[in-house]
TetR/AcrR family transcriptional regulator (Rhodocytophaga aerolata), 404 residues
Amino acid sequence: MEKELDTETRIKEAAKRVFLKYGYEGTKIRQIAQEADVNVALVNYYFRSKEQLFKSIYMESFRAFFGKMILLLNEETPFEVKIWKIVDRYTDLIMENPLMPLFVLSENREEGSLLFKEMHVKEVIHTAYFTKQLKEEIAKGNIREVAPLHVIFSIMGNVVFPFLARPIISYIGDMDEEGFRKFMEERKKIVPEMLMAYLKVR
Amino acid sequence: MEKELDTETRIKEAAKRVFLKYGYEGTKIRQIAQEADVNVALVNYYFRSKEQLFKSIYMESFRAFFGKMILLLNEETPFEVKIWKIVDRYTDLIMENPLMPLFVLSENREEGSLLFKEMHVKEVIHTAYFTKQLKEEIAKGNIREVAPLHVIFSIMGNVVFPFLARPIISYIGDMDEEGFRKFMEERKKIVPEMLMAYLKVR
DNA sequence: AAGTGTTTTAAACATTTGTTTAAATATTAA
DNA sequence: TTAATATTTAAACAAATGTTTAAAACACTT
């Protein structure tokens, strides 16, 4: 089952791979062209400039990624189940896009990124059902008093960090791809247990 | 109290700042020269090439950073106290070098980094007193059975990730520098409590 | 003061890299 | 088929960037 892609999408797919892996500065147009098996000039023919190509890809990829994250955050599932589900699904999501986290963080070294503002990340987080749910659980006395941002970044830290440090982990733990996958599967159990153990203590 | 630095160290300090902030590809020699208030040619006069300058800085900075981390890992303090201490001191250490984590991870996108091998990171981790201690506590039945790597990367994830995502956190949480500092100070309490809550459950 | 070696400078150089051009080729429409 | 249009190519271009050069400025010794 061969995929016959037209030139424009071939370039876009190639650009995605290369940008994701090497970042904006590290990516050369000739590298994209080679990866897409296409003449260099065609990159500019279809996408005016490197920057424009980058922006369209960056926004599209991140939008898709972030969209999936938000969807889950707003799902109306009981609190504890949701913690488990979030960890499980975020792990899978990043497993499918393992380069996304470092890419996003690398391209957001400076404060005040336009992308996040354009996507209303702040508002989305603050009005997310998960945030509301967390506050309710605290009010009901079911879980310990804690700022939502700490919970969110504890989840993210525990799930995302291993992917960021993946070459290091693989090296220290002598893991191949399968080994790393197992490591992350283990975390799917450890991380929610850790979070709940903390949150439930009064 | 003015510091009168000679040209070589001025260049080196400038290079440290610029490399740390923009990474290898993102850093231009002319930018370093300007930052050091020095003629472009002097950079190559003192350090043969961009790559060589980078390497010397990269190794030196990371060595110092990693050295401090290891020291703490090998300190002979009771287990629970140590967890608290590690979180506390790592937070402070990174607060002093907030760009180091993203820098190290960005420059280690590929597997098999020489730097880590040269510094015997693997061996150091595996033979660290902390690792031994963890196994002993498990054997004594004081804490839950868990692979040391999970504990280490849970600590790192919880401590380091917020720094990696700092521009994002600051934006979402409307924090200035002081706000972020407070956020991290709060984590100094939350993270060890979370870890211990998990580890102590049997 | 002259001589010696070091440091600094402006300029040039060579390479890389993003972009454009103009001609060649393929595709589509009349 | 023919003419118009779109796509592709090799080549050139211009700007950015790492590096080198050769001379000037400086510091130090004798």
In short: Chain B touches chain A through 54 residues (CB under 8 Å).
